[in-house]
Amino acid sequence: MNPNPLTEADLDRLEELLEAEVFGEEAMRLDEAQALICAVVSSPEPIQPALWLPEVLGPGAEKSNDPVVGETVELLMRLNNDIAKSLFDDETVSPMLYPLEEDSEDYDFAAWADAYVYGAGLGGDWYDLAGKHADDLSELLEPMFMLNGMLKEDAEKNGERWFNPAEEERLLADIQDNLPVIVQTLYNFWRAKRGGATVQRDEPKTGRNDPCPCGSGKKFKQCCGRPDKLN
Hints:
Layout: H1 8-17, H2 30-42, H3 49-57, H4 67-88, H5 109-121, H6 126-130, H7 134-147, H8 150-157, H9 165-177, H10 179-194
Helix pairs in contact: 1-4, 2-4, 2-5, 2-10, 7-10
Region (Disordered): 198-220
Protein name: YecA family protein
Organism: Azonexus fungiphilus
């Protein structure tokens, strides 16, 4: 396999291949593939390519003898290696984002966050694996649930208070601006856990019975601290 980092031309080629007929429109977009791989690389438990590649490519991944599939897999593995190196070196990863509509200046952060959350689920129950640091993990993952709309959906479903439009827009803009750092911080969280280091906190810890910091009005353990949030 080519050990060199992906070039812009390689990324363009990968984007084209993901839309190839062999995948029958079942493959992820390039932005979604990047997000899922960011979660896979960060996972507390090793996730083998045999597990995550079919999630990216759909049933077409089984056609291993097809040269298009082979080329796509090779480029995805190189993307995986690039992301792993960047996060390991604490260089952060710039999210690849698609516009919500053609010529739009608004980008589909929700799809990126959704793919990240899905990829995180491939590594087992993150909250279970976080153990006594599950509360810390909940706070780190909260921005992803804000971006993909899960927090708002839960609040509306339960008739709970939500942010006014201006505040919601401000919060989302702040998360979008800081998404590379959020992804890096999640990676560093699990790297510290794997290395046996203590997870450092810059702010006071949110107790399980304290109001959830997302502003939903629920207790933390009933909202972002729920153990099923990532399942």
